[in-house]
């Protein structure tokens, strides 16, 4: 029986070269799966089930923990470039896929860009959400923004994602609360929380990424969908427009009155768009 609900997808492990990766897969079997790359501080349990389930209805979906995250072994690397190498090891060496589609959010979009730049023949279609290019203006400020919003959320006794991902107006607060509740739908076999050490390492790696020389994104020639909100405080919205300019033929969606988590706030609109995009031109 094919599992199409993320809440029911079992957590699996795969050991490659002494490293163990935790992952989940669901949806129909196929030769080219959609691999999801997640955000800062996230584990397997931080994907919005409404987006995962919408895509898994017709596609094979794979989510995974980078090394040093959740139930995966080892430590998170000091650079996102190395995280891209680890992802390649998991996908190609471990799972044996020579071709994949990618759905990436935030830090995951940065890792995915590094992966595609290094291995342009690996990816067939690319979805980049809430993210920006290597060397993008303002990305290195993520440390200050993150810690400030963690403090604000602690004082408000609420989840930090409500501050980091959503605007603090009535609609944003409502969307943030609904998103956090959706993340609780899975009640068994939940992932291990991220360690403080891994969280700090990820922040530093993002900061290095933001202060690095730009990558040559002209090597990305595959169909690419880019999405964000118009007021992203974590990865400035203008960087989504920058990606759009630098990736030839890409499609850009900017949602109004929303921030870093726009694809979750506008999930009912975005999920079918992403699903249709990822299902186009399948062999």
Automatic annotation (TrEMBL):
KW Hydrolase (keyword) present: yes
Pfam family, one: Abhydrolase_1
Origin species: Microbacterium pullorum
Hydrolase as UniProt keyword: yes
Domain of life: Bacteria
Every AB hydrolase-1 domain range: 33-264
This protein's UniProt keywords: Hydrolase
InterPro entries in alphabetical order: AB_hydrolase, AB_hydrolase_1, AB_hydrolase_fold
Protein name as catalogued: Alpha/beta hydrolase
GO molecular function, one term: hydrolase activity
């Amino acid at each position: 029986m094919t599992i199409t609900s993320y809440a029911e997808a079992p957590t699996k492990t795969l050991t490659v070269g002494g490293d163990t990766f935790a992952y989940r897969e669901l949806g129909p079997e196929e030769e080219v799966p959609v691999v999801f790359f997640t955000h800062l501080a996230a584990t397997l349990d931080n994907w919005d089930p409404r987006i995962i389930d919408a895509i898994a209805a017709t596609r094979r979906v794979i989510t995974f923990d980078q090394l040093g995250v959740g139930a995966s072994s080892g430590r998170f690397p000091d650079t996102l470039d190395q995280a891209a190498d680890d992802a390649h090891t998991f996908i190609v060496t471990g799972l044996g896929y020579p071709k994949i589609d990618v759905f990436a959010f935030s830090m995951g979009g940065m890792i995915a860009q590094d992966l595609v730049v290094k291995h342009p023949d690996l990816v067939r279609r690319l979805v980049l959400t809430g993210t920006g290019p290597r060397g993008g203006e303002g990305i290195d400020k993520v440390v200050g923004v993150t810690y400030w919003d963690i403090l604000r959320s602690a004082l408000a006794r609420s989840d930090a994602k409500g501050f980091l991902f959503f605007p603090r107006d009535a609609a944003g607060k409502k969307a943030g609360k609904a998103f956090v509740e959706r993340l609780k739908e899975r009640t068994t076999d939940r992932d291990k929380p991220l360690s403080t050490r891994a969280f700090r390492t990820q922040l530093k790696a993002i900061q290095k990424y933001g202060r690095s020389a730009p990558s040559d994104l002209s090597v990305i020639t595959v169909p690419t969908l880019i999405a964000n909100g118009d007021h992203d405080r974590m990865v400035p919205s203008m960087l989504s427009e920058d990606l759009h300019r630098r990736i030839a033929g890409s499609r850009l969606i900017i949602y109004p009155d929303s921030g870093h988590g726009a694809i979750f706030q506008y999930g009912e609109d975005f999920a079918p768009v992403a699903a249709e995009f990822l299902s186009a031109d399948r062999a």
